[in-house]
Structures
1.
Amino acid sequence: MLLQQLINGLTLGGVYAIIAIGYTMVYGILELINFAHGEIYMLGAYLAIIFLGLFTAMGLTAASIPIALILTAILTIIFCSAYGFTIEKVAYKPLRNAPRLSPLISAIGVSIFLQNYVMLTQGATDKVFPHRFGEAGFQFMDVNVTYLQALIILVSGLLMFFLHLFIHKTRMGKAMRATAQDKTMAALVGINVDNIISATFIIGAGLAAVAGIMVASYYGLVNYFIGYIAGIKAFTAAVLGGIGNIPGAMLGGIILGLVESTGSAYISSEYKDAYAFIILIIILLIKPSGILGKTTEEKV
Amino acid sequence: MLKLVSIHTSYNNIKALKGIDIEVNKGEIVCLIGSNGAGKTTTLLTISGILKPDSGDIIFEGKSLKNISPHSIVNRGICQVPEGRRIFPRLTVLENLEMGAYSVNSKYQISNFKNNIEKVFSLFPILKERIKQHGGTLSGGEQQMLAIGRALMANPKLLLLDEPSLGLAPIMVSKIFRTIKEINEEGVTILLVEQNAKAALRLSHRGYVLENGAIKLHGSGEDLLHNEDVKNAYLGE
């Protein structure tokens, strides 16, 4: 029973973690809580449904489900990254030197705009993911793991691994860390800070897109409002790990997923969404800098 | 090589520079002295494009630097070691140096990078020992060496140094000044901002005295050292 909940929690936690990374990366560079980030995830879920629906209509899904899913993922990531890039250019860049509250308000505005834009164009009712993965899976230490769960855990694990490599080993990743630590000095060594900021939004949005695809396929249903609650949970995960800290966001996401699934099983599933807020309140009271905040801070 | 023509710059709505004319010739060490708030740092930040001048022009190697972004100015060959050194605290010494070479064209990067890093390590052997440490864990003097080393990684034609001696022990100050001379002798032109006016003027070919955002005096380092006004105001004699 506990192990089963841990698997469920890890699935959920992986999704929260990769959304939280987008929050924490943007915060690391701009010190902005990007409230529109949850909406990118929601767009990812919708775009996945639209593209997979399209491929199903074309007969591609019937021919090969993996190819259809991979194409769906690629297109969804490209579209969501384009949204992330555009949002930064339109809503945040003009406010770069404004008081800190202004871009925050702008972020909330973008969030409301995107929710309503999707509601008007896609309708207010739930949308169904065009493919059912079913309960097929395997036994692992007496626990049922569906193939989809295993895939979600694997994909989120790989994404976090490659992101870590990217941030620490590549020229651009190092430039991102440098920019997060000191924007003016980054410009003085010849880093194009605007490009680094754009890249941060593109990567964060791409990750949120993957999270959206995974959730849409896991639960099978989406609506235009899912970005709000997912955004707040991912924000909680980022704060829990120490906002601005990438390993912290990964850790925070996984802890949140585990708490939510064990709490639902042993306490009450009625409070499923409340656990995140309880954690947020506790962490803000006890250690506002988060688990990995300050001391081992590696912000981007 | 570098020419500031009637530069006016505002900083936080205060007119910090009120029409500055400065000329730096190739191969020179030129220093800019003056008290706190005279506009020395503002001058350097304006040259690097971090602050935009309200009016006037900056000409580098015959081309205007106006409306050019800071990273492109680095690409033109102007590097700055800013006030307070501004080491990236959570990057290692090696990563800090790699960031210094960020602007170097990637085609030449690998061999050029190795050459430059060897040059930096021969100037400052202590950095080699600290290569894996985070920049933030270095002492003030080591951070200053790293800051200068980082700027040299980009093969600058003109190096802007803002208060390199600030907060350092006397022995470290003379080490830094000797190194500045060495760097200059290898062909790098230097514009130096200093509170330590005596040491700066001794080192420099020419100097400018900045007061309240305007150039009050200029002349050779030797002349300024013996100027009565300079002696009274800045040399404490």
2.
Amino acid sequence: MNRIHDLGGMHGFGPIHAEPERSEPPFHEPWEATACALMLGTLRLGRWSLDRFRHTIERQAPLDYLRRSYFEKWFEAVCELAVAEGLVTEDELRTGVADTPVRPRDERWTPDFSTDRAPRWAAGDRVRAVVRNPAGHTRQPRYVRGRVGTVVRVAGAEPLPEAAAEDRCEVGHVYLVRFEAAELWGADATGRDAVYLELWDDHLEAA
Amino acid sequence: MGHDHDHDHDQDQDQDHSDVPPPLALRVKALQSVLAAKSIVSEATVDRIVDAYEHRIGPHLGAGVIARAWIDPAFRERLLADGTEAARDHGIRGLDPGVRLVVVENTADVHNVVVCTLCSCYPLQLLGMPPVWYKSAPYRSRVVQDPRGVLAEFGTDVDDDVEVRVWDSNSEVRYLVLPERPAGTDELDEAALAALVGRNAMVGVEHVLPPADPPPAP
């Protein structure tokens, strides 16, 4: 989806406000720690994949996405998924009182990390990131689409994010690809610099 | 009557205000209570996860890996060849199947910096919770396009003839930067070296600096 989470290369967000490293706490409020633990605790149930969780955050309204803090986005996504999966109801979220049973579900999201297919690309291959505008979740950022890079290595095999976001496991190879900064950003880029990403078979075509 | 009407109107407004969602902290507490009551996520599980990230898991773990790589060439080679296995052997926990750790080395010719433009992927197992700036729109939007400008904002100079490599963590790989060992640290042991290594250096936005008060030359 071409949504607000896909931030790479955008302008206008201003300077970086970094707290002093040695004094920044892992959580700034007690509720942030709880929200984080509930996200990790529910993810372990296997009721949804990490990509489905990411997709749920990405579908938050753009203004909400920018206005909400990081753990607020997490919390809203956990609530939405917990309701969708029948773990809790909207009423229970309002009252804090459990009064409905959990909807059972037999199958568990279990990612796989191997495939029998041979890799399509090898180190040194020139590849173009496919131009596409998928309606659902993807981990191919907009800023690489249509750009040509070089495969550095076959990096592994992982569930395809597009399918994983729907709790389906389709494993594909991932390739580490180097894109020269000038290819991505044009003449303004400093010539020697580069961006590295990992892209799946379906994200690449021969250049 | 007019006064009474206004009063009723005020009451209506108060009624409207009660529909405003309660503060976030209370909503989180409500979800926590319901999940605990249904034995989905127990209070003990929440406490264990929070305690881990507040007290056990943090940048000191990554710093230990970096310091060892600086003094143990065989470990450094293994770390760069297969970061996941080397980190596991070193005692790093929580590198679940499917999560790959890739360690990228800064040299005189290459400076590495890590981002996740799409969300906030980060080597939690070695660095703990990411800082707020790492998750923020300014960092995520800019560092891929203007890494040198971002590094300058952190006070980090990179020579023009050094190549800057930006690593966007868009898959289930997590990157850790192996910074350059600062000059004048030959006498330091592993623990003293680890104490020099900060989180920002392992993300790649800063260099590791030599100790403020170097030991006197022998």
3.
Amino acid sequence: MAVTEDPLALTTGDAAIVERPLGVLTRPQGGNGWRDWLSTVDHKKIGIMYGVAAMFFFIVGGIEALLIRVQLAAPNGSVLSADIYNQVFTMHGVTMIFLFIMPLAAAFANYLIPLQIGARDVAFPRLNALSFWVWIGGAIFLNSSWIVGGGGADCGWFCYSPNSGLAFSPSHGVDFYAIGLLITGIASLVSSANLIVTVLNMRAPGMTLFRMPVLTWMLLVTQFLLLFALPVITVALFLLLFDRLFGAQFFNPEMGADPLLWQHLFWIFGHPEVYIIILPSFGIISEIIPTFSRKPIFGYSFMVFSGIAIGFMGWGVWAHHMFVSGIGPLSVWAFSMSTMFIAVPTGVKILNWLATMWGGKLRFTTAMLFAVGTVAMFTIGGLSGVTHALAPADTQQTDTYYIIAHFHYVIFGGGVLGLMGGMYFWWPKVFGHMLNETWGKLHFWTMLIGFNLTFGPMHILGLQGMSRRIDTYSPGFGFEFWNLVASIGSFVIALSVIFFFFNVWKSRRDAPNLPAPGPDPWDARSLEWMIPSPTPEHNFDEIPVIESDDEWWHRKYGYDENHNVVRVATVEEVAQDGSATGVHLPAPSFWPLVLAAGLPLIGYGLIFNLWLCVLGGLLTGLGMYAWALEPVDDPDADHDHGHDDHHDDDDDDTEGAEAEMADVSAGDEEA
Amino acid sequence: MSHLFNVRGRQAGLVVALGLLLAGCASDAELDTLEPRSGVADDIYALVLPVFIVAGVVLVLVCGGVLWLGLKNRVKTYEGDDEFPAQVSHNNTLEIAWTAIPAVVMVIIAVATSVVHFAINDIDEANAMTLEVQGESIEWEPTIVVVGQQWWWEYRYYLDGEQITHEVLADPRNPPPADIVTSGQFAIPTGQEVELIITSRDVIHSHWIPALNGKKDAVPGRFAPWKIEADEPGLYFGQCTEFCGLSHSRMRMQTLALTPADFQIWIDEQMAPATFDDELQPYVDAVRAGETAAVGDDASAALRGLDVFNTQCASCHLVNGFNDLDYDGAEVVSGSAPDLTHLMSRTTFAGGILDLYNEDGSVNVDDLARWIRDPAEVKDNYADELPDGELPRGMPDRNLTERQIDDVIAFLTTLGPDASAEMIQATEVE
């Protein structure tokens, strides 16, 4: 390929580097150096990068949350000015939703979907890399507004027009918000298409849809929600940008525009977004609870169908965010009714988790604690949700702290706690060592207590009439005590997060002195536990043939004549040892990174200087062009490079022809 | 405040039933959503209370179930334990039951919700009351136009006997002249359903008097019908609840509920133009005649203050009977500034965040001076150091001297009638 002989490729005297010159136009080879992380198309490395970046933004959003709570700890708070406070609460919401929970869920989706369906990678590995690089570019772009944009967006994460217009938000914050979310939206959209195709086309032989683990199902539903929701917010953000940058009048009431247009577009995206956040966590705890109950998930098909039902009904409830916006009593009534009934499939899930635990042998590992905590905390959020599905009650509750309490119980209690449980559960699979259980339990209990201390009192504050998004409150309305409690609680959460990071550090340090966890440390049920920990680069030595749901568990256990469970094989007997060589894997590529790097430049260009758009456009165009010309397989690949060898795979992949990467890569090429 | 206005305490028993949830609801919580003081607010409360109880029961069952299962079925390890629990994977009857039972509960809640929802949205169009307006008796369908702007509320009363409608209003920036315009505090008659027509001059706000009803957004270009009513006389507090930019937290309002007889008195007072004493009147007459009026150094503080008002304030603030002849809206983004004609009849100013009177009934000169000295210091705004051509949002700093500030306050305090001692007491929170 001609481009590999680019004269601009850097060379130095260092022999190792001469062998692999540092130049974006040279085909990368894979391995484990830092350049391999930049060029990787391995779903596992991409998943890890998503996770690390998400946890970084968790800290950023958490610091913003602490600033909010410090400001509100006492009446007439003066730690932050009103202007800074508005920026901080806006960026807290944007960061936690788009830069923490969604990418953390993406980390699980990327890492686990191929493993759970018995595949070697996602359908379009290079697109997967593109998703990550586009997302991280958008994330950095969004937060760079603190430095180069004169502050963060100050319009709230919902950014209602006309307050988001140039006349009322003249700083660049809203531009960064709109462009940043457009960029991260591209990432999520590409990723959703990729993962949908992966689930539908790349399942191992015998892995029918209804043998898929509940987690994969929930992630699949999530990807469909993303696929349909993101175009809506994209349209809204484009309209907003055209108003702000080019003087369009889509949201200017002076020119006859109806500001409710933005609200409809935003919430048609925004409500499915809630399920985008919550369903991955539902999936995770649906893996954890059966494992630590020693029972199969109760009512698999009810669980799957209620997840699908939530996915569908999630599209019919958006206007419950607009009950007091003036949309007319009949519309309000219709959305009030639909909102009430979305409680039904959600309730089914809760009862099925309890039924899974019923009669089980419950082992309270940290992962199980988080999973059970998720069930309880989400229940509180769901119940308060029912109280504002009652449209008349919502006219009192909406835009008060009661709502803040509600959605934090849903998103933090139902979402974040579940994702944390997932970390403890799959940590050995990803990193090859366990997280420390003692510190894990400390992490859980401090987080649970801190969470309830912070958000429990907000129910009371809201019913007492404390409005949302206020940078200070006066003494005398009875808000003082519970605000102080909530602020103390927020620091307990911060402490729990410190415990988690300490645990990560300590567990890694202690790992060499502890026995390796082996492929299946939890006596778990799904396919990822039949392969070594950490997962080998090629995932499966042989693609397994699936004969039942909970396939891995059924390889270990059977039933005797009395229908009692008996072990039929040890883990060592049925697990794969990861020793296969020469498995055909997709070749790394720098082009996704190059393509993605152009997008933030276009964004800066739109705000500061259109010439930057030209530069960014050229970079993105170059990335696309070179990507299109780059063969899926690297003809110059180093044949001594272990698993990356692409030319003698024909004998190794005996099972599952459809899972072979050759097919996958062909699909990638077309994309 | 509540004891002053003879408010019912009948919910006490129910409140106790709610236990922990309400434990923190202090009795002095003026914005409390669980202390309804009107028929509509009662309806909402009566709807949500049983749902809170049902939700509480479900919560106890689920969380109790989790705890009970956790304690009962707990094992330390699976190490060396070959006995598995019964591998029950489903039970269709059970699962259909626990799909159906919540659905039935939701249907019951849905029916109750529907009834209340349509009741609170049904605005009675035939509840006119008789008012004496300038010697004439009119039938007034209680309707108040509520206009939000950054960061205060304006209330407009139309008392010419014609029903004010959305069509008549058309453009909230240039509404038809109203008979009474007030800000931050507005009066309603008790025992009467009052329709609010809620709109905005700039961004979206939300109008909320929790004791009297739920909230309704003020959306520019839209006119949202909403109703409030008060059973008993009193001062009811509210707060803007839709994020409306920089000083969203400093945008409050109060509803003054008066008996129909007191309401008539309020109407009479508010309808009258401002009156000036003998010293001020010549200056006022001169300005109204388009002549230049001069004020000597030996003039009283109020007269000097009127002069300051005329040169520094009158381009935005209206005082009926002084600058109404050539008043043409305020030079701010919303095109509107509070009408000060009867300023001292109110007990709050600066968008409902500062008290106009001290507890002892004297004028709160300190806060007035603080406000006039530098409004942005008291309440963040975008009114100073603006780029060329940009209009202010909020009250600009007029760079008055301390003496000018004292003078202008001396003038403003003549804009009566003064608020009653009872009202001043009621304004105090705590």
4.
Amino acid sequence: MRTTSLIRRFNLARFFQGDAPSPAPWRLNRRNVYILPTRQGIFFGVTLAVILLGAINYSNSLGYFLTFLLGSIALVGLLHTYRNLLQLQLRVATINPAFAGGEVSVPVVLENPGPTPRYRLAIAFADQPPVICELPPGRHTTVTLHKPAGMRGWQPVGRFTLGSTFPLGLFRAWSHVVPDEQYLVYPAPATGAGLPQASRYMASLLGDQGVGSDDFAGLRGYRGGDSLKHIHWKALAREQGLLTKQFGGDRSERLWLDWRMLAGMDPESRLSRLCRWVLEAEQQGLEYGLWLPDQILEPGHGPQHRQQCLRALALFG
Amino acid sequence: MLGFRSLSRPPLANGLLLLAILLVILPHLPHLPIWLALAGLLAIGWRLLHDTGRVPLPGRLVRTGLVVLAILALLATYRTLVGREAGSALLLLMLTLKLFEMRSWRDVTVVVFLGFFVMVTAFLFSQSLLMGIYTLGVVTLLVASMISFQLPAQPFARQPLLRDLRLGSRLLLQALPVALILFLLFPRIPGPLWGLPEDATTGRTGLSDEMAPGRISRLADSNAVAFRVQFDGPVPAPEQRYWRGPILWQYNDNKWQTRPHQIRLLQQFDLRFQGQPVDYQVTLEPHNRQWLFALDMPATLPDNAQVNSEYQLLARRRIDEAYRYPMRSYPDYQLDPQVLAERARYLSLPANTSPRSRELVAELAAKTDSASELVEAVLDYFADQPFYYTREPPLLFDDPVDEFVFETRRGYCEHYASAFTVMMRQAEIPARVVTGYYGGEMNPLADYMIVRQSNAHAWSEVWLEGRGWVRIDPTSVIPPSRVELDADLASRQPEVRSQLDAQRSWLQKSLRQAGFVWDALDNRWQQWVIGYNRSQQNALLKALGLDDINWRTLIMLLFIGIGVALLVIAAVLFRPTPRSAPGNRAARLYRRFLRKLARRGWQKAPGETPARFCRRVAYQQPGVADAVTHITRHYLQLRYAPLNGDQYRRHLKSLRRAVRRFSL
Amino acid sequence: MDTPVKPDTRPLHQAIARLGEIIVGKQEAIQLAVTCLLARGHLLIEDQPGVGKTTLAHAVAAVMGLQYQRIQFTSDLLPADILGVSIFEQATSRFTFHPGPIFAQLILADEVNRATPKTQSALLEAMEERQVTMEGQTRPLPEPFFVIATQNPTYQIGTFSLPESQLDRFLIRLELGYPDADAERALLSGVDRRDMLEHLSPVLTPDDLLVYQQAVSRIHVSDGLLDYLQAIIALSRELPEIASGLSPRAGLALLRAARARALLADRDHVLPDDLQAVLPGVVTHRLRPATGESGHVVERLVQQLLDVPIP
């Protein structure tokens, strides 16, 4: 009975990998915080052993005392290191999509519900430089971690590590955090590919509803402040009341970014190219639509449209 | 791995570390060669200037050169690299040179750990109470600088240095109880584990195993404590405070010596005691000899002690740590009153020793009938003739006794004891020189006597038929008018002290008083901390009711002790909730009320106001509506309304009563 | 003047009841509007045309006995049209100041987002400073001074939405919304609201209002409440979803509104309930979500602020 619970509590896979992904918020407790001496800690132990041998050899009471004092400071320091992590809470805030081959920024909200300040917390994905922060009691902070974005599509955030060697650097306490959040990776934008020349105009099925000044779009009741130029004088003359003319339009070109235009390339390269086109078209302020074998996005523009297009590309296939 | 390789806060943290290193080096300064002391201070200064951005650090080539140069210089100074002096100098040198290449967190660690080493070597020179207190301070600084290097440059504390010091001292304070348990219970292995270097211990004594009056023109004077004595009963009178030490009986080449000790059994002496015994404990400072000291005349032997043919107490081992032993002495005694074994050895004198004094003795002997009358006559001679007591006597050359008795007539105890003993032997009276300490002053605050090295004394013992060995102190017959002492030295001579006491100013008196307080503390320190050894550990365990435990049990006990201490500290550190603000009793009562409700499934959401929660509960559980409303109303008043003291008390009382009575 | 510590609030409640008769089914909005008035703040109503913004303003003026002016903001409205203008008079050969519509106790600034930013800021400055400075001469605005501004939803054309930095000049922002079925029925079957307004007699005098406004500043705020307020503000600054948290001015606004709310509830101290009641109205127009989108996000954020544990 006891052994099983011990095995459950201390299991090598958890020790090295952390727990299975778990929903937010992640709380640090006695079960998921580990602690081991650092290289300095081992060096310190050796130093103490040598001092102790000297004290024994010379029957030097103060030598004994210093050894024991330093040893006790290390032990108490261990408790402090452990406490520095305990009770902390973590959650991953909304992650902005990234492009394949780039870096993804993972905002992690750290909360210290405890009554003591937390010093020198280091958070990092494996093989990435750590982000260092401090947390006064009862406060939150958001740190942004970076890691390679990985492949196109939904990607798990993966394991990152929260560690601390405060106060003496002799011990390192850490916890592996595996949040179950995911982030979206857009295809890598292809380089050096200009917008397609063969753009085709295609009338919108829904007609024009936008705001602009070119095309007459309709009439509505007059409101104070409406420009005099837009008052429908003829209607006034016909005693139909004060009406204001509404205009829309302002669009000159619509671009279809079409999967079929890239025949002969492998799917990922096609997606890459389309991704670049979407970015370009948005940047040039064009109306653009996206044609994919499994999805068609009507022409439009603006951040939301761009996001929809990129999302479709990311999740294609 | 999340290692912190770079130094993130160099100037400030380095400053703290440099201060700590300076304090580590400071106690070593008195015994370091001047060049090394200067080099150490220079290195610290250099590093400080570097950190404030003024000078570069020496390059690799220069550093290597410095190391070689310094080691050569060390070898030239000490001719060795091991041993107390050379070893600590070497460590200090390493520490100093490491300051020049302190770049990474790893280097800092090395510097701090070397600092600990150098600190320990200082204990080989002094283990005083002052040193102990000093150590605590330095350790705090070293720990604080370790913390400083851990913390980033922009901490949320306004004064990071102060914060680090506070954290460091808190760590130290929390560690102290654990350290104490370790100190008391860690099995004490009697050293040495390997051979001690020649200069291992600090012990020095004002006594030696030979005495050559006239060869040294100035008596070394040391205020150091030789031993301390705690009396069980009344303190013996000043004239009885003769602390018996090495006995010198062989006179050769104008010097007194003791031959290799011949160990005897206590039973081999014919000892007769009268009157009341004096019981006491002696705490002897380490002096690196086997000598033990006791009042004339010791009647018992401490554990592990022996007695030699001259009835001198000897420990079986050199006293290299403070040693405390119980003693019983009788001031009124007779030693070998009937038969004197080896009579010849106490009469032997080289041929042609002091012919003039031989004449004088013969002259005096003619005038007296018995040996004891002759002793009186010789003492009278010293008293009547213009003999002076001085601690800076002229040098004596060919025949020190004759030159002293008939020409210079100026000397200290050694001169008188030596001359008197020689004269006794010339009169065929067996005699020997006894060295030891005379006097000792009571610490008026702590009820024990301090005997200092400056109390070292020499006197004679003569063997008289029927009376045995009788103590004769020829120095004591010199009248005070012929004592030449400077005030400081005189103050330590018991006979002069009373005269001086009247002349002291209040400042001197209070300084003296403070000195006594400090010595009392130091005495405790020496007895209980520095002198803590295996036997004291056993005594402590016995007092705790743990008799005869082996080291395995001891280690188990040690682990349990540390475990309990750490658990207590952890319990305090990991306290789950913050303590509520003082006076915030209403909130505490309300939380209790919430817990009662929560047990029945009524959970208040964190953002739910008390009033809203109250309405929710009252609506769904009309039975308790009144009570819940009552409690909530009082709580809201206490927490949010402006109340005077009286209203506050009234509401609090109602709330307390209501919460206590409340049940679902 | 010897003001009682706690004024008689019965007339105030009477006034609120009277307002409720005219604006049916909008109890919460009326409460907030009166709270805003008591806290010496200004009110921003943001909603579709025709839901009763004007009626509310008019009714408040009538019930409180306030001198009322309505300014319809249009794109060609000039600052002078609001503040007033100095005109050279032949008879006296002097410039005389003709005060604009702003010199009234209650201003209804209709559709402020239709005016140019220049005109908007003239209004907002006057609101903030409670005085008008023209041609080097400073003229104080009457007391009490209360602006109810209305704003059409920003997606309508021809509008200049108020910049965020200006928005927090308004203490409270509220949306009226459509009336529920019962209220709608009452509205349709009842007497024309405009007629009711005309027959409305004041319940309060401007002096009464001033007394109430002074009483608001004497409402007690305990340390416990400040702790709670600070926790809310701190969270708003820490949530990653919020681009910029609540400013110190927003904190003061919250406190002022909560005090007024406590007075309305006949209490001499502020409770967390007061804070929560005014929180959405006070903060929604001051929070800017980190992501471009708004609407539901802000609502969710406000809910998060409401969920801050009460210490």
